Amino acid sequence: MKKVWKGFAAAVSAAAIAATGFIGATSANAAGTYSIQITNAPEGHVYQAYQIFAGDLSNGTLSNIKWGSNVSADGQAAMGDAAAKAKTLEGGNSAAAETFAKEVDDYLAGTPTESGAFGTPTGGYTISNLVAGYYLVKDKAPTGDPNDFTYTSYIMQVVGNVTVDPKTEVPTVEKKVQDETTDAEEGATDGWGDSADHDINESFKFKLTATLPADAYRDNYVNPYKVVFTDTMSDGVTFESIASVKVNGTNIDAKDYDSTATANQAGGSWTLTIADLKTAASLSSLNGEITIEVIYNAHLNTNAVANNETGTIGNTNKVKLDYSNNPYADGTGHTPEDEVYVATFLMNNTKVDADKDDKPLQGAGFRLYASNGTTEIKMAKNADGTYSPIADQANGTGVEMITGADGLFNIKGLDHGTYIIKETTTPAGYNTMADKTVTISATHKNDHVDLGTSNLNNIVENHKGSNLPATGGMGTTVLYVAGAAIVLIAGIGLAVALRRRQA
Question: pTM of this prediction?
Answer without folding.
Answer: 0.74
